[in-house]
Specification:
Elements lengths: L1 E7 L12 E7 L7 E10 L3 H4 L17 E10 L10 E7 L3 E5 L4 E2 L15 H14 L6 E5 L6 H10 L3 E6 L2 H9 L5 E4 L5 H8 L4 E6 L3 H9 L1 E9 L3 H4 L12 H6 L2 E4 L9 H14 L6 E5 L4 H9 L6 E5 L6
Parallel strand pairs: 8-9, 8-11, 9-10, 11-12, 12-13, 14-15
Antiparallel strand pairs: 1-2, 3-4, 3-6, 3-15, 4-5, 5-7
Helix pairs in contact: 2-3, 2-9, 5-6
């Protein structure tokens, strides 16, 4: 049986395009001892996919000819004598492929839920990233102002909703008037600023008349620079991502560093979601409660078809998604 797979045709030197990917077929992989064969059901599409093409990060760089790495929800097709069983639904490191193999000890069995995709959005990597960054680094207190960039995105939308559930005032930053209106009307933010309009620092000052106590940064660059200008003394800056820097060969950094950090005595800390895996159960309990009470809305953007994964990533980098973007490779067996 053949295995459809998307590989990197060539590494981009500028903006990512369809020409940087190749859809091909290989033989379906066979699991070695201690490995299982997985059928990929849902793939996570993240801005980090683009950063992996620029060099080593918290994982090895992606090279030309490599299948594109991803995080996926999969079905065990061949348990191969391991502790898993055929038909188990698991989370695993995978690639943009229909089938992959993985070490059995490295895949995570998943609980049964009514909607499988929620295990990759609100109860998965997006929700956990939002919860862990905000709670463990931001330490929000009711009444504080929380500022969030990429507020319509997979992580930013949950950051704002969690902060609202905790009694904070929440201001988002998003691209375009339609997205800003959606963030306020649908996600319940108190205000949202369009970073594409001129005068971003001034607009943030108006939206945050008492300053910001916490800033959750998903963007970097100019947006980070402008956001630091409205931070209160002893504020906390949570560095989660830098999507404005990934799809360019001319990245820009904030010009007000380190001065603003010193003058305002800010705490600025980066993280990746795995840093707080020991708190995952606590996160899921809290998110289930807020979803159950209606304080958190689950917003997903699901694209059908493995062949559409490159377009899904390119569109995400251009900001055309609302909520967590996924690619459905195969039907949910449950």
């Amino acid at each position: 049986m053949q295995n459809r797979q998307i590989t990197i045709a060539e590494l981009p030197t500028g903006t990512l395009g369809p020409e940087h990917f190749t859809l091909g077929e290989t033989a379906k992989p066979e699991p070695n001892k201690g490995e299982v064969l997985l059928r990929v059901i849902l793939m996570s599409i993240d801005a980090a996919n683009r950063s992996w093409m620029k060099g080593a990060t918290y994982r090895a760089a992606v090279q030309a000819g490599d299948p594109m790495p991803t995080y996926a929800i999969c079905e065990v097709i061949d348990a191969n004598g391991t502790h898993l069983s055929n038909g188990d639904i698991v989370a695993a490191e995978a690639t943009w492929s229909e089938y992959v193999t993985a070490k059995a000890r490295k895949v995570q069995p998943l609980p049964k839920v009514a909607t499988l995709s929620h295990l990759m959005s609100v109860y998965g990597i997006a929700g956990k990233t939002a919860f862990h960054g905000l709670m463990s680094i931001g330490n929000p207190i009711a009444g504080e102002t929380v500022l969030v960039s990429a507020a319509a995105g997979s992580v930013g939308g949950y950051v704002g909703q969690i902060a609202k559930a905790l009694g904070c005032r929440v201001v988002g930053i998003a691209g375009g008037p339609d997205k800003c209106k959606w963030v306020v009307d649908e996600l319940g933010f108190d205000a949202c600023v369009d970073y594409r309009e001129a005068g971003l620092s001034r607009a943030l000052a108006v939206a945050c008349p008492d300053g910001a106590d916490i800033y959750f940064d998903n963007v970097g660059g100019k947006v980070l620079e402008s956001s630091l200008n409205v931070m209160n003394e002893k504020g906390r800056v949570i560095c989660c991502g830098a999507i404005s820097q990934y799809d360019t060969e001319n990245p820009t950094g904030p010009r007000n560093l380190p001065g603003v950090i010193v003058v305002k005595r800010l705490k600025m800390e980066g993280f990746i979601v795995m840093d707080f895996a020991h708190n995952d159960a606590k996160c899921v309990r809290a998110m289930q409660h807020w979803v159950g009470t209606g304080q958190i809305k689950v917003i997903e953007d699901i694209v059908d078809g493995l062949e559409n994964a490159p377009k899904a990533l390119i569109g995400l980098l251009n900001g055309d998604n609302k909520g967590k973007r996924l690619v459905r490779v195969a039907a949910d067996p449950t």
